[in-house]
């Protein structure tokens, strides 16, 4: 009987404690950005197409840090490269009444309707890393993707000259991103235009959809079908570099710069992993994106819009040039990977 009364007393105490906590508000809660939603801080949504590789995760991290500097509360969502999922998330954050949105769209066409809904809700939206086909935005903060692709081809030529390989003897594999995204499409367009201008022979152009496994299999298939390929351009070293190097290794084709059988590799992103591969001699050059800068500019533009200092339909294009990383400057702080 005493045990039953003791048990009953404990239960009553626990219920009382729970009610007391509920009445007192239970403390504060934190969002992904670490802001306190109990105040009047503007709430912004950071909606990424993916955070699966070092580059794009660094963009997300920099955006969260900048938002915190400005005192914003943040909501974060990773679409995992699913356009439908991202469209659903956009509807959700509009319903939640966010004050602003930073959007990295999965697909330029598919997300245009979602941006139109953001426009209808009169919510400022800034795009980062890639843009959309239709709809209005405060600004797009991105790399000059066409230029990145063009310079990727130029770096192949530079590496060939150092290796004593004539341009007409180059046989190039282009591993594209996803051509449904503006970053993937424009990089490929820039690379192919440079190839035309420079006289490069592209033996195969294969989409990878920004997927590491797809890049690995595409490299295997291309090299087995065309074993005389001696140069490769990667639309994203964050997604593809290690996978492609593994494919070389599996086929017995992995040789460092200076070896007569070395396959020239140039890429876009400038991730920490590719910095190491350049130091090891397996990658020749990267066209490093301004990961930190583009994220900071995007959040700054949202702040301007929320303060009424930037138009919601300004559609400003803030396109930034690459920093070329080679063995000659691989420790430079101009490469974002060396600032982390």
Structure explained in plain terms:
The chain is an alpha/beta fold and 340 residues long. The chain folds into two domains: 43-143 and 290-320, Rossmann fold (3-Layer(aba) Sandwich); 145-288, Response regulator (Rossmann fold, 3-Layer(aba) Sandwich). Helices cover 44% and strands 18% of the residues. The chain is built from ten helices and twelve strands. The protein has helices spanning 2-24, 54-69, 83-96, 112-120, 145-163, 182-198, 212-225, 237-250, 272-280, 291-306; strands at residues 43-48, 73-78, 100-103, 125-128, 139-143, 171-176, 201-207, 231-234, 264-269, 285-288, 316-320, 323-325. Strands 2-1-3-4-5-11 form a six-stranded parallel beta sheet, sandwiched between helices. Strands 7-6-8-9-10-12 form a six-stranded mixed beta sheet, with helices on both faces. Helix 3 runs parallel beside helix 4 and helix 5 (145-163) crosses helix 6 (182-198). The longest helix has 23 residues, at 2-24. The relative contact order is 0.13. Mean pLDDT is 90; it is low at 1-31 and 33-37.
